[in-house]
Amino acid sequence: MREATVLDQLRAHIAQIEGSGVRHATTPFGIEAIDARLPGGGIAGGALHEVAGSPDLADDASATVFLAGILARMEGPVLWCLRWRDLFAPALHLAGLHPDRVIYIEAGSDTNVLLAMEECLRHAGIGGVVGEIGKYSTTASKRLQLAAEGSGVPAFIFRRAAKVGQAAEGTAAVTRWRVTASPSEDLGIPSLGRPRWQVALERVRGGNPHAWIVEGCDATGRIGLPAALVDRPAATGDSQIAA
Questions:
Q1: What is the CATH number of the domain that holds 136?
Q2: pLDDT truncated to tens, each residue of the chain (243 aa)?
Q3: How far is C-alpha 107 from the chain's CA centre?
Q4: For residue 162, is it within any domain?
Q5: CB atoms within 10 A of CB 12
Q6: By residue range, what is the domain housing residue 159?
Q7: How far apart are CA 164 and CA 176, in angstroms?
Q8: Is residue 36 part of a domain?
């Protein structure tokens, strides 16, 4: 076998181990303003992502449904790892994530949640793996990222009740999101409009942070832009909320 061929095969094998050069499917939001800021035009498969709300119950609920909406548009079962079962599962169904697709793993501690996530991520064909934790180390995030790259399964760290503005640890996550509740449209009558959220992309590999006001997930897991924001000129500056 020629030396050049051996070297090419060795490089390909190393790239496969490291996860580089391997393209996994992405799940777009279907909103150009958001997808254009994400590598591959959506939530990358085979990668680690972080989602957080805040200690406010409305914000934490918004972040939960936001995450459920992403998973609802992915194929395959979802493994949801948490310390104990205190998640309001019917809310996931409202975002299109059917209860029959979700398998809950009650791990009892952050350490066990991370171990469960890593084990789940070794199996291809899963729609996604979620882990609810308070804190985790940079080393742990790298292990999860490598496991996700190896199987092609997207991994999500969900930081429930995470304080806004709290200094975040270094992470290997491709994206980090913060979702908080925002006032709904005033309908002019005693009624409730579609929920609105402020969705902040706090970190994205190879890009800049940004934030949007969006309408909450519908029954298919899709978010939308309020009509008033769709028709207005886009705001300038990466620190502003924009359509």
A1: 3.40.50.300
A2: 556 566 556 655 554 554 444 568 899 999 999 999 999 999 999 999 999 999 999 999 999 999 999 999 999 999 999 998 888 888 899 899 999 999 999 999 999 999 999 999 999 989 999 999 988 999 999 999 999 999 999 999 999 888 877 656 678 999 999 999 998 876 666 556 789 999 999 999 989 999 999 999 999 999 999 875 554 444 444 444 433
A3: 21
A4: yes
A5: 11
A6: 45-185+192-215
A7: 13
A8: no
Partners of 157 in the β-ladder: 50, 131
Element (H, E) at 13: helix 3-18
59-98 exposure pattern, b = at least 16 Cβ within 10 A, e = fewer? bbbbbbbbbbbbbbbbeebbbbbbbeeebeeeebbbbbbe
Tokens 């791990």, residue? 107
Q: Does some domain include residue 159?
A: yes
Quote the tokens at residue 146: 């490598």
How far is Cα 131 from Cα 87, in angstroms, rounded to an integer?
12
Assigned token pair, 96: 């299109």
Residue 84: phi, psi to the nearest 5?
-150, 160
Give the residue carrying structure tokens 């936001």.
Answer: 66
Count: domains in the chain? 1
Instruction: Enumerate the β-bridge partners of residue 156.
Output: 49, 130
Model confidence pTM above 0.85: no
How many whole angstroms from its chain centre is CA 31? Answer: 16
Q: How many residues belong to the chain?
A: 243
Q: Are 91 and 64 in contact (CB under 8 A)?
A: yes
* β-pairing verdict for 196-204 and 175-182: antiparallel
Q: Is residue 90 part of a domain?
A: yes
